[in-house]
Each structure stands twice: as C-alpha cells, then as structure tokens.
Write a structure and sequence with these properties.
The structure is a homotetramer.
Chain A: H1 6-12, H2 18-37, H3 44-51, H4 65-88, H5 94-111, H6 113-121, H7 128-154, H8 163-175, H9 189-205, H10 209-213, H11 233-237
Chain A binds a DNA duplex (21 and 21 nucleotides) through helix 2.
Chain lengths: ~240, ~240, ~240, ~240
DNA sequence: TATGAATGAGCTTTCATTCAT
DNA sequence: GATGAATGAAAGCTCATTCAT
C-alpha cells in the first residue's frame, strides 16, 4: 500500500521480530511522553531512553518527530471513528443512537485518556497537511453525532435548534471527562456513563420541569408530546414527582 | 509588596511611561504567540521581534519565560474568578445564578479566547509550584458552579446527583466554545449564549418530557433586550400550554 | 541596502567594535578551514573553536553554513572581477590586455590561493540559487578574456579560432598555479608571471618556427584519419611558408 | 597477494558471480555519486540505494568509505598512467611525443570525466597515507610530460626554460577540459584535441611572430605607461623571416 | 531602557559502521 | 551475500539566558 508509514512497515514484518516489538514500544512510549510533557516538550532523547535506544535509532521507526505525532493522532482518530461506527451499526432510533454514542465516547475516553488527550491538545503541533487529515477525520466523527441530533430533531424526539452547536457542546462535555477521570476513583465507569448520558439526553430532549415552574408566561415555549417510553431505564426509575 | 512580579513592577512605574507600555505590549504579544504556537513552540526571539526588542531586553519585564506564562495564566484566572463573583453578587436564586454563571462563562470565553485557551492548554507547561497556584484558582472558580448546583439540588430545583461531576461536565461544555467560536460567525454571541444556557439548564433541571414550558431564561438575567425571533423554530412551535 | 548579509551588517556597525572584529575573524577562519578541509568536511564547531566562540554564536554572523560559503565565494568573485576590470581599464591593445590579464590573474592567484581554491572547488557545494550567482560572475570574468581574444583575433594579432575554448584553456592553465605555488619557492612571482604569460601569449599568437611545417600534426600520431578541414580557418589561412 | 583490497578480492571470486557484478555496480555508483555530490557529501545510504542494497551490506565490498575512494582514485591513476605510457611507447621524437601526450590526456579526460574529476577534486579527502600513494602516481604521470619537455628543450625543439612549471601549466590547461566539456557539444572531440594540442605545441615551441621582439615583455606592460603606438600592431607588417 | 555579543545546553537529524541472523 | 537492527558520534542549528555597555 502506498500510504504505509515506516511504523506500519516495521509492524508488518515478521511478526514477533524485535523490530516490530521495538516499533510498538516506541509508539507506546511516544504516547506516554507526549501525554505527559507535550509534543514540543518531549525530546527524542527522552523517548529513546524510554525504550532503551539511542536517539538516532528511532529513525528506523519514523521519518521524523512530526510523523510520529501524526501517526499516533491519525491512527487514534481512525480507531475512534471506526469503533464508533461499529457501535452504532444496526441502531436506528435516534435516542438509542445518542445514548450509544455518548456511552461509547465516554468509555473510549476513559480507557484511552492519553491518546484522546493528545489528539485534542496536539492538533496545533501538526503541520498543515497532517492537521488537515486529522481535522477531516474529526469532522467525520462529529458528523456522526450531528446526524443523530438532526435525525432526532426531525423525528421530533430532540429539541435541538442548532445541531452543529449542540454537537460541539456535547462532545466538549463528554470529552472533558478525560481531563479529570482517573481509574479507581469513587465513581465507576458505568456510573459516570449514566450521569453524563443523562445530561446529554436531557440537553437534547429539552427543558425539564424545574424551569417550567418559574417560567415567564409571556415567553413560554412548549414541548411537543414525546414518548417517554424511549427514555433510559435509570431515569425512568427516578421518582419524577420529586421534582414537580 | 512582596509578591510583585517584574511585570507588575514595570507596570507600576511611572504610569504611561514607555516601560509600562512596553510591558503591556509584551504581555499582549505573549498571549498572542502562545495562543498561536503554544508556549513551548514560542521563542523569545519571536516575542521580542513582535514588540520590536532584542530578546535579551525582555528580561527587564519578566524573570524568565516560565514566569511570563505564569503571569498571564494567573492574572487571567484571577480576572475570571473576580468577574464571575462580581456577576453573581446579589443573586440568590440557584437557577438565576446558574444562568448567570453560564452566560458569564460563555461571554468571557468568546471575548478572550486566547487567554482562555492558554489557561486551559498550557497548565501542563507550568512548573509545579505555578501550576498549583493556577489549579487552586481554577478549583475556586469551579467551586462557584459546584456550589450553585449543590444549592439548587438542595432546593429541589436541580436534578443533580453528583454536583462535582456535573460541574466538570458543564464547564467542559461551556469552555469548549472557545475551540470553534469565531467572531462574525452565523450565530451571534447572544444566540450562542441562549443555546448553551438552554443545554445547561436542561441538563441541571433534568428530564421533562411531559412537562412545563420553559421561559426565555437568559433574557431575564442578561438585561439586554433581544429578539426572541432568533430562537429556533422547533421550540417556538412547541405548544406552550402543554407544560403549564 | 536590501542584499546585505548578516556578515555585511556586522561589519557595517561601529567600526572597530568587537562584533566587526569577530565577523572578520570568522570569515578568515572560514576561508582557512574550507581551504584546508573542504566545505563539507569543515564543521562549525571547528570554525567556532578557531575564533574562540561557541558554535551557536556563529549564527550572529551568518544565516547558516551555506551562506558563509556563499558570502566568501561571491565576495571573492566580485573582488576578482572588479580588480581585473580596474587593471584592464585604459588599455586597448589586445596583446597588452592579454598580458595584463594574465599577469593580474596569476598574481591574484598566487596571493589569494585559499580564496581562489575555494571558489573553484566548492562551487559544487553551493545551493542552486547561490551557484547561479557565482557562475554568472565567473562568466563575466571569463568574458573579459574571451573578449580580449576575440578582439585580438579580429585585429589579426592572435591566432585564435575558438575564443571560448581558448579562454577556458588559458584560465585553466593560469588558475592551476594555485595548486602548487607556495610563497618562498625557487621561482619568484615575477618569474612565474613571465613564464606563464609567455605560454599564454605564445598560445594566442600561434605557432612558432619549430612547428611551422605541421600540416596534419596530430594525424601523424593519432592514427585515426581525420578530416583536416575541421581545422580552424585562421590557421589554414596563414601563409605556411612564411616561417619556413 | 597481500595488497589486495576487498574490492579486488570480491572481483576475483567466481568471475561472473553475483558478487563481482555487485562489486562493479558499487564502484560505478560510487564514481557517479562522488562526481555528483562530492565524497564528503555522498552518503553510503545513497550509494547502497543506488545499487539496491542495505548500507551495511556495502562492507562486504570495501573496508570503509575512505577505501572506496582510494580504490577508485588509485585505480584511475594507474589506468591513466599505464595508458599514457602505452600510447607513448615507441615514439621518440619530442614533438610527436608531446602531441601524443596531449591528445591522449584530452581524450582520456573527455571520456572519463567523472573519474578524472574525482581524482583531481578529492585528493584532499584522502587520508595521508592514501594521498601519498596517489600523489606519487600523479608525479609519475606528470613526469612523463616533464621528461618530454626536457628532452625537447635539450633537442632545441622546445623553448621551455622551466619544464616543471610548463608541465603544471600544460596539464592544468588540458585537464581543465573536463570542467566544461560535455559530449554532444558544438565541437567534436577531434576538434577540441586539435585546438588544445595547438595551444600546447605553440606554448612549448615558443614565441610566434607577434611576440618575437619581447625582451622584457611584462615589464613593458605592467609598470610604465605604455604607448600602444610603439606596439607592433599589425602582425602582417612584421618581417616574418625574423625567426627563421 | 535597551543593545548586542556571547554562552552552554540541548535539539532533531544524519552518518559510517557493526553484527547477529 | 545480504539483511536490518542498532550504535555512538557528530553534525547544523535554536534556544533561553546573561551581562557589559
């Protein structure tokens, strides 16, 4: 294939060979160090030391420092996109798709914090050409959510006037989890997924009762009747009267 | 005063003198260049050139590069915190406070994208001691929102089981605006404030499929008369009486 | 002026300042080391050590290694060209001009062996754009001699059928002196000038008595029958019996 | 044999084997790349790529980079010397020998420009011991011409006061052809041989008519203001028999 | 206040070379 | 005979920083 990078070539060679192992080690160390120090602040000497090489030897595995970053970010974005599409495959109901997307995004971001963090922080460090590739992938990923919101709004399930803005808002919110989440914290991944997904769904489905009570009648706006049966279980279990 | 930095001293000197003007120019150029290239990638030569100095001369205005970053970030955080507290002063109702906070945060982030971006991206570049200071300020800022949510939940206005998590989620969502917002876009600041605030309030107040109509919450707070016609159609089309 | 290099700027500053002295020292050391080791083989660390600096400090005085070479070679070529033109100024007789040119070229090459050597050897090391400039200067210099030969041939003083080829031949011959001449040798500069100039003039003015009878001089030796008609006209036109 | 290099050994092995072909390919690629980029600037990676090997594999064919250069230059010099001696064998007349030498040198330099160029340019890149060998070969080669000139002068055929200087001058002139000659140019090899040989012979045989009267040729030009009227302008006007 | 010369450390990258396979 | 992983040194160059003037 034409677009194969040095890294991919090294990986393709006799599996289990030292070269492939080294390539993987470099990739992992690269992710770790860029996550920790930032791309600019990470030196190739550091990286080499981390995998037990001389810095010059790294160039068997990538063209240059910039390409290492690009490889990491692009592969991550392709992985993210592919897995999201796989998770959504077969689901048609917008609300179910929204929950699936949110849950996927959250779990992915809690599991691969470093990759995700890098992909978000170091876009600025990519050269124009590389950035364009990555941004295009990100657009496609955002497009998944945007399309869900758009479809849900069309179906009358969501109250979303600006799907693009809502997409950015939701993704920012969900992605933010990788800024503070650490495994082993008080809340489990499942609990966090539920909390965040609730916020997303509430945001998408529109205003709740609390604001209704203190509404200014003049400007009041109403919701269309919606099927509450499509709601997620936990929430359905919540005593709704508690807030009335 | 003991804690005065070179920058502050330079600013304090004969106000209006060349020195103060230069100090301010350096600060602004610093923000601009760090925003554009990142702290690590910005060189002091660049910065000096931007303000028409030799790089060595910069050291009349700051201790070192790290301190320039610290000054910028800390001052920004103090400004952010101070202005948020000022905006919230006198408001007691949790929902009003939440709307105020959201609106303030959004407007601040749309107005000072560079500062905000830096404060979020370059924390990693701060030395431990400096980072601690900034993180503490950020905690205080987040504390404002957390306290609002906690109070609202106590009052039964908000459906927030985990105020801390919700705080992170909301702030991530709101802050995300500085990643894509550019002045002069299709949507005005007011419109964006309304959309985002709607999402926040909906998220905080919880699910309300069969429930009340939601006022134009922001207008009540933000004081500027706005044309409610900018509102998205779906909501406007909703039967207003449905939640009354 | 637009085309000023770092070197020239450093030289222009307060005369006698340390900067100007350093600039000159770097230039001289550069000539010396490139002469000695070749451009590629000379390291900037060597050069820096030669003038008592750190290698990074050299970059106050030139943009990069390549520009140092270019500066040296271009300045040399301009100097060579300028001095040649000055020497020839006012002389009109072709033979006198030829002798003047030869003498000038020889003396210049015996005096500035290093510069001359570099200018001849390191053209290959110049980047395309720089090489173009230098080659153009060299063409102009060669043009001086070519024009002399052309004029002399026109006047009937020289027997030169191919002025361009003769120009290359003569310049190669004269320039060659810098490959072996060392001051203090058995022969003085004046003696060498006389010997070389004699060869040049003899070559230009054509065959002497000893070879008067050579009709097909080469064929007699080289075994391949060749058409002597390829001979240049001037010689063919010469009255061969005149010297018998 | 003791003095055999890896290259020679590789060549000697099963003739026609792959190894010998590779050895030859490396040699040729080496000549090509050194000619093009210079010895220092040519990397062994380049060379290996040119012949379709990994750079490490080259070491089956030479000891190290330096030895590759030495092999090329020494073999070239031995070839040059051997062929010159062969060409001169049997010729006794100094003038004929001079013409033969010139013609041989020119043709050789027009045919093997790359080898010749390398041998002249890269002597500086040879380590001392190797350079000594090559310089000795060159001395022997120059000795051929010097001896011719010396003999001719003894015989009264040539007007050469300093055979050594004349040797350098002539060889420089002739060798210079490889700096600009390109096959397919306006002038054929034969024509160039004739032109150059003419210059050589004229130079060796001494003054032609135009300069017959040169007693102190240079002084006449250099020092005093000159009266071009005293000049023997028209060549035809001079009594040509003066030198008979 | 500002310059400009200089430092010294460190950067990414390339190189010739080695060697187990 | 050839590979490919790796070395270790060195290259050109940039950087934050210092300091005499």
């Amino acid at each position: 294939m034409a677009g194969r990078t040095k890294f991919q070539k090294a990986m393709a060679r006799t599996i289990g060979s030292n070269g492939a192992r080294t390539a993987e080690a470099i990739r992992q160390a690269g992710v770790k160090l860029i996550y920790k120090h930032g791309y600019e602040a990470m030196s190739l000497r550091q990286l080499a030391a981390e995998v037990g090489l001389q810095s010059g030897s790294l160039y068997k595995y990538f063209e240059n420092k910039q390409n290492l970053l690009f490889d990491i970010v692009r592969d991550h974005m392709e992985d993210l996109l592919g897995k999201a599409e796989a998770d959504l495959a077969g689901i048609t109901d917008p609300l179910a798709r929204l929950k699936t997307f949110s849950a996927f995004h959250l779990r992915y971001h809690m599991t691969r914090m470093a990759h995700v963090f890098i992909a978000n922080m170091e876009i600025r460090s990519l050269e124009d050409e590389h950035r364009a590739v990555v941004v295009a992938l990100r657009r496609r990923y955002e497009g998944l959510l945007e399309e869900i919101l758009r479809q849900g709004a069309e179906d009358g399930v969501f109250q979303v006037s600006e799907p693009k803005v809502a997409t950015y808002a939701i993704i920012s919110m969900l992605t933010g989890i990788c800024m503070w989440y650490r495994p082993g914290g008080r809340l489990s991944q499942d609990e966090l997924v539920e909390i965040y997904t609730g916020l997303v769904v509430d945001g998408a489905t529109g205003p709740g009762p609390a604001t209704a009570a203190r509404a200014k009648p003049l400007e009041a706006v109403a919701a269309q009747p919606r099927d509450s049966g499509t709601r997620a279980k936990p929430r359905a279990a919540r005593p709704k009267t508690a807030r009335a």
